[in-house]
Amino acid sequence: MRVFFDGNTAHVSGPIEAVEGLCGNPTDQSQNTTLNDEKNIEDGCDIQHNDTVDGTINCNLSTERCDLLKQPPFTACHNHIDPEPYVDACKDTLCKYPAVDGLNCQFMEAYAKSCSLKDNITLDDWRSTVNCSAVPQASCLDQYCSDHEFCGEKLGERSCLCRALFACKYKPTNALGEPTVCTENSATISLAGCLLQDKGIDYSVLHLNDPNCKGHMDNQTHMLTFSFDSSNTCGTEVSMNNSQILSKNTITVKNSSENGVITRHDQIQIDFSCLYTKPDIKSVAFRIKDRCVEGG
């Protein structure tokens, strides 16, 4: 059994006898054991999430892309390795999912590597022919992502993107995180780093009304938290209407100018506020009776 993995593409090859193992012998059905024979197992996913159809994907273009495996220079390997399984897998993936993480090149990479490993066939200049980078890079080996994220590529950059099950509760309302948490003297709001990344927002340039009040990014959860309180108001605006007190602040970004270079960012304004009810002031009226006593 031979296993090849370069951080991006995995290739397993060997004679059928080499795959004998815990589940049995592929050449003798009577020796095969399945998991169902041994124990009953339950689905590991508490909630199953089905992705909606991505209307931005043009399946015809994806099919044309995948069919490049049927053309030169890949034809040099067709007599040795059937390209159809690679083409089918390519179409099934690219017609359902965006071509992130270099997916539009990974199937070509896998086929070319299979040809090289099995029969030492080198497909000359295939990368330039199908417009793939000359040097494939291992994906996300040094990238840490939280439990609700996965490492992927978007707009040419690798980053932590939201898992669908996590993002689905925010996207219907176009929210970027959790609701504001209010206490008597403070307010806190947490935004998801992957949701900001999905919108192309650089969290490091965000701040409250006071530019010195920036958010804290948790290195484990990748949640960005902003807060203000009575001792550090961060430019909070306070207004009063009868017995109600409204404390309001805004997460925003300001265009800056350093060393004569003007840096502009897209307009971002995320308002969050807390409403308090001022306790009634109760008054007590009382009357004091005084009596003078004369001594004799």
TrEMBL record:
Keyword terms of this UniProt record: Disulfide bond, Signal
Keyword Signal in annotation = yes
Concerning Gene3D superfamilies, the annotation shows: Zona pellucida, ZP-N domain (2.60.40.3210)
The protein's matches in SMART domains, at most eight in alphabetical order, are given as:
C8
Q: Where is the ZP domain?
A: 181-296
Q: Which InterPro entries match?
A: VWF/SSPO/ZAN-like_Cys-rich_dom, ZP-N, ZP_dom
Name listed for the protein in its UniProt record: ZP domain-containing protein
Organism classification, top ranks?
A: Eukaryota, Metazoa, Chordata, Craniata, Vertebrata
